[in-house]
Amino acid sequence: MTATSVDQPTPTPPLRPSGLDLLRTELRLHRAALWSWIAFVVVTAGLLLWLDGPGANATQKLFDKFGYAGVQQDAWRGPVFNTFWSAYNNLFYDPATLISIATFCVALFAAGPLTARELESGTTRLAWSQSVSPARWLAAKLAVPALVVTVGTGLLILLYRLVWTSRSDLLLAGYLPRELYFSIGPAAVVAPLLALALGALCGLLLRRTLPAMAVAAVLQYVVTAIRSGLWPFQRAYQVPDVSVHSRAITSTGARITDPECYDKVRCLAQHDVTGFTRTYLPSPDFWPRQLTECGVLLALTALAVGVAFWALKRRTV
Q: By the 8 A CB rule, do 124 and 302 touch?
């Protein structure tokens, strides 16, 4: 044994960061996006709670007094063209609009700041040189936001279903209640995962922030358009009717057929009507449509994630 071989220290292999280390790194790196998502969930949940509480008081009083005619009276009093800030009937659909916008933003975030920007700036090379393999890097990139998005969207959809159950009697009948009924289910929780996967795939393939975000926006727009009514299985069902059960309540508590007095107080008094009930009945098409849509969305998500890992492996081998 020579003196040189004795003096030289044995090289220490670089420590491999644990999964918890990667989780902390991702949360710290994208803390602005994390806080933005938390703010979105809090604001949307607050809006839903308001719709279930103080926001419904005025419309509920009109409904208790005049029945469905009171709902119409309240809905038609607001501005015709301002659908976001107007009557209760329009405000009820705003959380769904916010969830759709947030899903769109998930695709843009995954394509830009989450993947393409790091590939474009070269910071991924630094990560890969510190015992983080490209596959682990991408797994952490997808797993952390997927968990955050699923928890947030799941809570909002669950809360939305509860508000629907308690306040859907205050909505104008027609296409919109039916569409909302079929859009606030498990498929709405899975949809952001597909947006995340498509955005990450765009970022990995294009490796340029702005082009990746632009392509992800187009793909997400196509997915949204298809989900709005172009699924093949939706052609069989179209948008099924959601049956409504309406009754008038007399002073004795008896439930009778609505005498259709509208807002005529004398007519209501003649029929001894003191209140109304109106309930959207569960549709037998809800779960078949939801499960089918969830299956399609999950399959597309798995395909996009698989292609993303394959593309990353090809570029790093």
A: no
List, in sequence order, every beta strand (DSSP E) within 197-311.
Answer: 244-250, 255-256, 273-280
Q: CA dist 265 to 82, 194, 199, 268, Å?
A: 31, 53, 57, 5
**Which among 102, 103, 108 is positioned nearest to 39, based on CA atoms?**
102
Task: Confirm if 169 and 63 have CB atoms less than 8 A apart.
Answer: yes
Q: How many residues does the chain have?
A: 317
Q: What is the pLDDT of residues 9-41, one digit of tens each?
A: 665 655 667 777 888 888 888 999 999 999 999
Burial 10-34 (b: 16+ CB within 10 A, else e): eeeeeeebeeeebeebbeebbeebb
Closest C-alpha to 242, from 162, 163, 180: 180
C-alpha distances (whole Å) from 124 to each of 91, 222, 274 are: 44, 30, 68
| Sequence-distant (≥ 6) Cβ neighbours of residue 170 within 8 angstroms | 56, 59, 60, 63, 71, 74, 88, 89, 92
**Close Cβ partners of 165 (under 8 Å, ≥ 6 residues apart):** none
Q: Quick one: 115 exposed, middle or buried, by C-beta within 10 A (0-12, 13-18, 19+)?
A: buried
Positions of the chain with pLDDT under 70: 1-16, 78-85, 229-240, 317
- The confidence score (pLDDT) of residue 231 equals 60
| CA 72 to mean position of chain CA atoms | 29
Q: Are 17 and 129 in contact (CB under 8 A)?
A: no
